[in-house]
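Need tokens for this chain, all 277 residues.
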Amino acid sequence: MDTKLAFEILANIINYLRDDQQMLLQLNRASKRLYNISTPLLFCSPKFESFRQFESFANTLTSQNGMHVKYLDLHMVPHRWDSTKIDQLLLMITENTPSLELINLDHCSQLTNKALVKITKPLKQLRILSVDDCRLVSNESIKALVTNCAQLQKLYLGSTRIDDGSLSAIATHLPHLTHLYIPDCQLVSEVGIQEIIQNCKLLQHVNVVGCFNIVGIANVNQSLRNRSTEVRSDNDGFMDPNLEENVMNESDDRHRSGLTPDDLEDEWTDVEEEDNN
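Here are the structure tokens for all 277 residues:
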């Protein structure tokens, strides 16, 4: 009983350090008990400031520590848009992260349909996905991922090559969808939007700014007069859907700070070595 109480107290103390990645990494190497306590906090929502750091993290993941990863946000990773390694690294990560709930892949310009399908296939608990400005993404991958990730609630597909075929698949397979962002998707029409609205009963917001193939938006809004769904179609500029804020809120504000990118690469390597012992 005393041992259990001591462990719980120690876990509560370490929980106050969840915003200090440097300290968590140091604790992670101090002892087996501290390793067990700090690992879930350390891996829950990792932050990356360089592509090399992200690559090191991918190589560090195992099935043991990967089960703690819930939020993966690449929006601060430079050169993700021109790396030919991005597909393989994401595959390495998602194969070991079955509990992943949020993944932000915006501006990963080299991400292919084939890779996106493989990346999302194991993610049965995924609730938020962004592939904004992933310009190789089209119907091929969206039709597959909506069947793989039926729990999706927020979907960001801005500036992709989807058309009404993707919207039909979304309407059919995503009953929990609350937010859909498809700005600058030039191939979608009001037909697909109407199908989304009719079938996604929990839908709260649709952003179609810059979708110039959509006509009769007034008729769409008229059909929503008895619902709380908002369709945004003005061309005053795309309002940021606050994906970053979603990441921070969903991860309980676990912002990692205090290390340089080189330090973090070394530290992730150390974690991998400890995990293998």
